[in-house]
Amino acid sequence: HSSDSPESMWFASLLIFAALQGLYGSQLLCRNKYSFCNSLAPTIDWGNGFPPQESEMEDICLKAESYYTCLVECSVLSPDPLDTTTETINATLAIVKEVCNKESRLHTEKVKDDSTNLLQIRCSRCLTLDLRFFATDTKHSRFGCSTATTAVHMRNYLRSSECYIDLASTDIGYECGKKAEIMYNGYISYLSESEDVDDADRTRHRYCMERAYKMACVALEILEECGEGAQTTYLELVHRSKYMSPICSRSTVRELRGEFIEFLAEDEKQEKNLLQSFNL
């Protein structure tokens, strides 16, 4: 297919979804009652032959839908009051279905800009972003965005996908994870000097803050290596999948956006990027 075809748009979207899974470095953790769903999960070969052919991506789509549907059904048939991943699973299943449907508005809604003669994708939110990946939610038109559009050249879109793949082949996840651990330890030491620290719930607190910082670190690497549009797409996927919801309490999110950022003492530009990542 040519790089400007709807099929290429669909293929690029799938690559971004696959790259997100690889960069973020983890899948939803299933409890024992979910374990039989794992056999349905898709696998992606990051070695020779990647990216796969379109038919292989179709197979990944089918398996991904089956896997997340299985998890949803398990959570309904065997509800666990201690399981906090249900919302995340449902949100991720919705994303998979949207990305994998070539007829969805995500892939088909394009308008022509006479001034630039470039393909455009309708923007569903009033944000000045280079790339709008999820252009399907019309409810945001009440904010006055119904006619807003963002010009996206398909070759640039595909180039972002390739950049994701390049990053996925590096140690970015590991390196950002180590940075997150160092930053959290420093933050806790800082808090210990200035106030009493309650150790009762530190495990969840640590997990939330380290995962959030790792996500922000990856996003900053994507911004530097792939550009603002690619970073925006990555954060859209992470935020919309509600990946952090089972991990972070609202109070910890407020702490991330307040005391933790204050502790990091970054410049104004970096602080803005961190706030964008921590908008959980």
Automatic annotation (TrEMBL):
Signal peptide segment: 1-25
Organism domain of life: Eukaryota
UniProt keywords, alphabetically: Signal
The protein's name: Uncharacterized protein
Classification lineage: Eukaryota, Metazoa, Ecdysozoa, Arthropoda, Chelicerata
